[in-house]
Amino acid sequence: MEKLIEQFSLGLFFWQSVLFVALVLLLKKFAWKPILEAVNDREEGIKNALESAEEAKKEMQSLNADNERILKEARAERDSLLKDAREIKEKIISDAKEEAQEQASGIIDAAKSAIEVEKQAAISHLKSQVANLSIEIAEKVVQKELAAKEDQLALVDKMLGDVTLN
Amino acid sequence: MRRDFLIKKITFLLFLVSFISVAQHHDNEHAKHSTSHTEETEASLGEEIKEFINHHLLDSHDFGLFSYEDEHGKEVHVGSPLPVILYDAESGLNVFSSSKFHHGETVAENNGSFFKLYHGKIYKTDAAGTITYDDHHHATNTKPIDFSITKNVSFIFLVALFMFLVFTGMAKNYKTSALPKGFGRLLEPLILYVRDEIAIPNIGKKHYRKYMSYLLTVFFFIWIVNLLGLTPVGINVTNNIAVTLSLALITYLLTTFTANKNYWGHIFWMPGVPTPMKILLIPIELLGTIIKPFSLMIRLYANITAGHIVLMSIIGMMFIFKNWIGSPLSFGLAFALSLLELLVAALQAYIFTMLSALYFGSAVEEHDDH
Question: What ipTM, to 2 d.p.?
Answer without folding.
Answer: 0.77
